[in-house]
Amino acid sequence: MADQLKPALIFGSGFHHHVFGDVDRLTIRPLYNWHALVDEVAVQMGVAVPVKLHTPVQRWESLITCAVKEGYKGHKGKDVKSLESAANVVEKKARKVVASILQEASKNYPHSTRSAFPKLDQWGSIISLNFDAAWLSESDMIDVGPADEPLGIQKGQELKRLTFSKRIEGVDGGACRRIWFPNGNCFMPDTIRMGLHDYGSAPHAIKQAFSLLKQWESQVGINMKMSDVQHSEALSALRKASEGVNNFSGSFGEPPFPLTWVADFLYRPLIFAGVGLSDQDSGLWWLLAQRARNLARINEHQKTHILVHATDRSEFWQSRPFGIEPIFCSNWDEGWEKLSKIS
User: Fold this and answer.
1) Is 256 exposed, middle or buried (0-12, 13-18, 19+ CB in 10 A)?
2) What is the full per-residue pLDDT of the chain (343 aa) written as tens digits?
């Protein structure tokens, strides 16, 4: 298609592992190992380290409940006695500790060809499932802040997670690219998504953002046109809203495009790297299913790839769930090299 958008790169903690290479230093481990991150939060808060038989998300919940029951170190290291704080108060403190740990681990982050990978011109946007932006320098960013807040989405943390983004300059004066943080970020610690409580709210928020896109399509009359025309016009609107191209739709009385990371996810080709797409990512799987439904109506679909190790659930990925094409590799250096050749 002539109006095909550049793909969105979706990456997680595996990206940091690729940047640092075959090393496992205590000071940087929280960037790419959530178990290590939970351990360090517990230590800094003076809470017993949760058992490692559970997932990091489950361990986070254990950490919070343990702090409520047994006490913890609060503001400026002041001891908070058992049963003095509600779970939401403890979690607010724990999120700030997460941000502090990751900021410390991000010091002296390598500025290499590897860390510059997300800034390549081949990407139209970045969806980072990490909380940090260690790979970015201050000079990379145009601005930091929320997109225009779409009406109809509940206020609070989920709205911030849906709409907050950074923008970086395009290569050689090209279109700007947004960097989204669906799981929250260190710039706004209250948005950091670590526990089951927060993961449970993600699918509903994603569905709200998806519904707003469908409402917008109806309001501007896209849904009354041929399927391929619908898709083409949606891509054009996303390009204007997401890439910083002037958007004059408001001048003609049309409702503004409801820009969130969900829109970039829904309409762009997708490349997953350093992301396991586990069962706990139910919101992403739901959105992948909706994306597959939308693309079933047009002849030419937006491609979706995921970088996976050859030994990682190979039969599952070979079944191409929701049209996801696996890129198998025997080691991660080989895998990221393959990604650099995808257009």
Assistant:
1) middle
2) 445 789 999 999 999 999 999 888 889 999 999 999 999 999 999 999 999 999 999 999 999 999 999 999 988 888 999 988 999 999 999 999 999 999 999 998 998 999 999 998 889 999 999 999 999 987 777 766 655 566 566 678 899 999 999 988 876 566 788 999 999 999 999 999 999 989 888 999 999 999 999 888 888 877 666 666 777 788 888 888 888 654 444 434 567 889 999 999 999 999 999 998 887 788 899 999 999 888 877 655 668 999 999 888 889 999 999 989 999 999 888 999 888 877 5
- For 130, the token pair is 């990490």
Q: Tokens 């709210």 appear where?
A: 201
Rounded distance between C-alpha atoms, residue 325 and residue 307, angstroms: 9
CA distance 97 to 41: 6
3-state secondary structure of 274: coil
